[in-house]
């Protein structure tokens, strides 16, 4: 498992709901947390590790010593949004890119925990931003889609760089062709609720 970068097709995949919590799923969640900490991120969605499941992990402290703040979120649904906030945002699949993104200030979210409990939380400010950014990922929506006209213009050069690097890696055979990557995702999605 590794974190994929834009424009890997997994980042545009619309994930499938998780219907079974088993060892394979728990193992994938643990691996995702490790990758998130290694990359010093505060959140990581399944699509960012090329898994087609409706799952993300987060820890707003980004600190592996503060495990009490880490969470695995299954099948999140944003029930309500209130207010707005404009803050700089980044994404582990877009190294080096930070842009101002408008998000709701507060959200009410319903999800399942890894123990199978249904949870409902209200999150504000930074935590609300994490929930919105990561839940978007599970529908193939990226933070660059949320930029205004000026942000888009500012992001253009970096996106072109990431695209060029990705295609180079593909032509060197370091990354399989997109058709193969998509086939893999669909096979995993059709194979049941969890990766094997
Ligand atoms: Zn992201």
Keywords:
globular, 7 strands, 196 residues, binds zinc ion, 4 helices, Peptide Deformylase, single chain, alpha+beta
Mean pLDDT score: 95
Return the CATH topology.
Peptide Deformylase
- Alpha carbon gyration radius: 16 Å
- Tell me the number of strands: 7
The CATH architecture is Alpha-Beta Complex
Tell me the CATH superfamily: Peptide deformylase
Work out the helix count: 4
Quickly count the domains.
1
- For the record, the CATH class is Alpha Beta
Specify the biggest β-sheet.
5 strands, antiparallel
Q: What is the first-to-last residue Cα distance?
A: 12 Å
| Helicity level | 25-40%
In what range is the share of β-strand residues? 15-25%
What is the N-to-C succession of helices and strands? HEEEEEEEHHH
Low-confidence stretches: none
How would the global form be characterised?
Answer: globular
Give a written overview of the molecule:
It is a single chain. The protein has 196 residues and is α+β, with helices and mostly antiparallel strands. The chain has 4 helices and 7 strands; from the N terminus they run αβββββββααα. A 5-stranded antiparallel β-sheet has the order 1-2-3-6-7, with helices on both faces. A two-stranded antiparallel sheet has the order 4-5. A hairpin with a 5-residue loop joins strand 6 and strand 7. It is globular. The structure holds zinc ion. Zinc ion binds next to helix 2. The site of zinc ion (ZN) has 5 residues, from helix 2.
């Amino acid at each position: 498992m590794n974190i994929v970068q834009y424009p890997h097709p997994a980042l545009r995949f619309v994930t499938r709901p998780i219907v079974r919590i088993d060892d394979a799923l728990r193992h994938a969640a643990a691996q995702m947390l490790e990758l998130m900490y290694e990359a010093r991120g505060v959140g990581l969605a399944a699509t960012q590790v090329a898994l087609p499941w409706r799952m993300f992990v987060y820890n707003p402290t980004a600190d592996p010593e503060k495990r009490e703040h880490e969470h695995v979120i299954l099948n999140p649904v944003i029930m309500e949004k209130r207010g707005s906030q404009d803050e700089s945002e980044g994404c582990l699949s877009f190294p080096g890119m930070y842009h101002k993104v408008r998000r709701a200030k507060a959200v009410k979210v319903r999800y399942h925990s890894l123990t199978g409990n249904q949870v409902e939380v209200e999150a504000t400010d930074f935590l609300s931003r994490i929930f919105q950014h990561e839940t978007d990922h599970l529908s193939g929506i990226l933070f660059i889609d949320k930029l205004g006209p000026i942000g888009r213009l500012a992001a253009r050069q970096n996106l072109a760089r990431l695209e060029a690097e990705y295609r180079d890696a593909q032509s060197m055979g370091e990354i399989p062709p997109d058709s193969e990557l998509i086939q893999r995702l669909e096979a995993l999605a059709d194979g049941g609720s969890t990766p094997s």
